[in-house]
Amino acid sequence: MVSYGEIGAIPVPDDGPAAVARLYRRHWLGLIRLAVLIVDDRQSAEDVVQEAFTELYRRWPLNDPDKALPYLRAAVLNRSRSVLRRRRVARLYTPPADRPSGSAESAAELHEDRREVQRALQSLPTRTREVLVLRYYFDLAHAEIAQTLGISESSARATASRGIAILTQKLKELR
C-alpha cells in the first residue's frame, strides 16, 4: 500500500524513485535558478542541483516528506557555497582569467537593466545575496529563509533590509 505525503501541493508516494522524480520535475528549474544566482555559472548550478537530488534519493524515505523541498533548497545553497569556496582556493593558485561573456544568444535575451541588477547582486556578500534571492526571487517568507539558511528570523529580516539598501545604492551609482 502506498501512503501519500504532501510536498508543495503534489501528493507524493513514499517510494523513493517516484517521489524524487516528482520533486525533480516540479522544482529542478527553480533550484537551478537559485544556484545560478549564487554561483553565477549554469553548468556548476546544474551539477549542484543534481547532487542535491542524488543525496535526497539516497536518504529516502524521509521521516517527514514535507521537509523534502526545504532540504533541497538548503542542500543547493550549501553546495553552492562549496563551489564558491573551491573557486576561491583555485584562484589562489592560478592567475585569474577573464570571465568569458555569455553567448550571443543569452546576451541578446538579457536586457541591460537585468544585467545591471545581476552584477550588483553578484557584488553583494554571499549571505546577503542568498537572503535576497530566497526572499524576492522565490518569494519565501523570512521564517522559511531563516530555516533554509539556519539563521534566526530576525537575522533574515535584517539581512534582507540591509541587502536591499546596498543593492539600491549600487544600482543608483550605475545609472
UniProtKB/TrEMBL annotation:
Pfam families: Sigma70_r2 (PF04542), Sigma70_r4_2 (PF08281). CDD domains: Sigma70_r4. InterPro entries: RNA_pol_sigma-70-like, RNA_pol_sigma-70_dom, RNA_pol_sigma70_r2, RNA_pol_sigma70_r4_t2, RNA_pol_sigma_r2, RNA_pol_sigma_r3/r4-like, WH-like_DNA-bd_sf. One of its GO terms (molecular function) is sigma factor activity. Coiled coil: none annotated. Residues 114-164 form the RNA polymerase sigma factor 70 region 4 type domain. The keyword Transferase does not apply. Keywords: DNA-binding, Sigma factor, Transcription, Transcription regulation. Residues 23-88 form the RNA polymerase sigma-70 region domain. The keyword Membrane does not apply. GO terms for biological process: DNA-templated transcription initiation. Belongs to the sigma-70 factor family. ECF subfamily. This is RNA polymerase sigma-70 factor (Sigma-E family). It comes from Kribbella caucasensis. The lineage of its organism: Bacteria, Bacillati, Actinomycetota, Actinomycetes, Propionibacteriales.
